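Please check this today:
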Amino acid sequence: MNKSIVCILGLVAASAQAQDSSNLILTSDQQQNSPVLENKTEAVSPNEAATLLTEKKAVIVDVREEDEWNQQHIPGAIHIPLAQLNSRLAELAPYKETPIITQCQKGGRSQRALLVLKSLGLSKVYNLEGGIVAWAKAGLKTE
C-alpha cells in the first residue's frame, strides 16, 4: 500500500511539472458531450466504453506494458504505458477535447493514470471498469 501511495505521489508530482507545457488543460466548453458520460463520475463499463469508442465520442488509452499490449488489446486504443505517460503526454494533444478512458489489465494502473491526467487539469477522464479482462468477458473485440 505504501509503495502504491509513493508511486502515485511521484506520478502526480512529475505530472504537475509537465502541466505548464502540456497544453492539455480543457475548459468545460471544449469537451464533447455524451449522454453515456453525463452522470458518470470516474468509471465506465466495457459496453459503455465500446459504444463511446465506436461513436468516436471517447478515446481509450491502454496503460499496460508492451508485452501485455502485444498479447491482446482493444482495437483503436492508444498504447502509452503508465511509466511513459508524462513523457508521451503530447500524443494525447489531438484528443484534448475528447473524453479519455484509461484502461489496463484489471483497473489498478488505469486508475493511477486517471489521477495523473486529472492532476494535469483534464476533467473528462474515466477508468474502464475491470480493464481488458472485463472487456473480454463482455465478449467485446480484441486484437
Notes: The longest helix spans residues 2-22. The longest strand covers residues 59-62. Residues 53 and 59 are 6 Å apart (CA to CA). Helices lie at 2-22, 46-54, 66-71, 108-119, 131-137.
